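Q: Predict the bound structure with adenosine-5'-monophosphate-propyl ester.
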Amino acid sequence: MSNTYPASDEFVADAHIDAAKYEEMYSASITDPDGFWREHGKRIDWIKPFTKVKNATFDFGNVDIKWFEDGTLNVSANCIDRHIVTRGEQTAIIWEPDDPKAPARHITYRELLEQTSRMANVLKEHGIRKGDRVVLYLPMIPEAAYAMLACARIGAVHSIVFAGFSPDALANRINDCQAKAVITADTAPRGGRRTALKSNADKALFDCSDKVKCLVVKHTGDQTTWVDGRDIDLKAEMAAASPYCPYTEVGAEDPLFILYTSGSTGRPKGVVHTSGGYLVYAAMTQQYVFDYHDGDVFWCTADVGWVTGHSYIIYGPLANGAITLMFEGVPTYPDAGRFWEVCAKHKVNQFYTAPTAIRALMGQGTEWVEKHDLSSLKLLGSVGEPINPEAWNWYNENVGKGRCPIVDTFWQTETGGHMITALPGAIPAKPGSATKPFFGVVPEILDPATAEVQTGTAAEGVLCIKESWPGQMRTVWGDHERFMETYFSQYKGYYFTGDGCRRDEDGDYWITGRVDDVINVSGHRMGTAEVESALVAHEAVAEAAVVGYPHDIKGQGIYAYVTLMNNVEPTEELRKDLVKWVRQEIGPIASPDLIQWAPGLPKTRSGKIMRRILRKIAEDDFGALGDTSTLADPSVVDELIDNRMNRA
Ligand code: PRX
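A: Predicted complex:
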């Protein structure tokens, strides 16, 4: 039995959901999903109320997912306008800049309405209409929130590209969704340094249609090049635009956003989320999972470039009329106490971050935490990867002071919101386990080989979901076949998460990590195929195979086996050059941690690279290499072991 940590009686007494209520609501959500979601669908405002609730089939070949399909709404109105009467002067967004000496900003719901409206009017002036795509490539600044909500206001579809991605990655996404405009900023300050976003956008736009407009937020005032007729000074035009923009009525199933994410094969996929179901789900999970109460200050440290930022900085909290904190900087600037300084300064009540950040800060010692008053904290959250016991304990003892429940939330870009997580007043935390499913979520563990559902309480296998939930992605942008193939072809009748999972004797779920060729680096998803194709695009590289390996801080690191072209000498300089190359091709988050020169790669006689073996070598797990006799040349394995990089 693992240790469990129930919330205090005081916490439970005040919680939205206690144990009895969880049981009752969970059971209702499964036995009568239509009745359950008909009720909870009302938590948002509809222009035309829905009459239909769930209409979803996971049948391979016919996958079709719809929620609240005949209802109409506007997401921006739900996140702003409906709060104006009751909380117009309440802070919606607290913005904390990268530089701790610069003033923080408190943006009220009324100001949010005005700024969002102004930006929406500028977009309209430049021809952006309902259904058009707009790519956002922005720092963590209030304009990122305005831009998301401005798109939603006029029914345009945003696609945020994380500001750490390269010009190439940006161009690919602009082209894939055929965006009409890009919204960017001059430069992005982070950790005291500046990323030249506009200049990256300029490079990307070389490879895009010359009709694509570039709206630039002059954030730092740094010098940039300017293309007349294409580039637009967004702040100046906002200042001149009307401060109110009526919102556009959209269907529940009209797309709200596209977010590109890595898979096992090929280029990143455009995950499509729609308006009604997504908003209901993001808002409901934000309230219940974090036990958010009116007036609380909620801080999710993610970047809006990832789904966590979409659902838990912007849409979930704002739909609930919450106070949400947006942080431009990094946890270690100007020192390793920054997170805690910000918590103390803004009296944060719920704090939500990733294990990789906790591990990095843990390494800096407890004095950075002790310096700051964390008495406002009521709850802590974790997301993005399994949290190891050391990090859990450190978080619990030093940040939560043993009195804050910790919610370990398992979910994915594809799921829109939390899937498996403790509800803090109902389910005791169990370090390392995401514990129980959220309302409406039916997890099943399947045998990876036979696809048989594991019916015992204790079980191990791959994690699938049996029934649709409102926040589920609906399709891959422009490629429904790929959507079905990726998520519904392997285990018929189920949504396949790509994760391995164990269920213990208490029925609690433990996510054991990806079972496909996706690696999780610092809580960010990276496809090994993407890094490989970047490597082989270098003139010195003949072949490359990339796998993940355990990394103390990042969770997983990127390990690349590289075969060079004939006559190319493997040098330290080339190694550095390849790392730099991948950073340029994809972005810093894809930098290989280790590159091993591999004169040969283990291949079957038909030429398929046996990644299983490469993974084991990278993990230093030579006892478990398995059968190597089917290899075309088994001797390459010894060579790779002898020259491996990842030694203790
Ligand atoms: O492997 C799981 C891991 O992150 C993957 C999803 O990554 P992404 O789409 O980038 O979304 C991350 C934030 C929602 C999952 O397939 N993962 C996410 N949360 C957890 C997790 N693994 C274990 N425990 C978690 N709490």
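A: The two ends are 31 Å apart (CA to CA).
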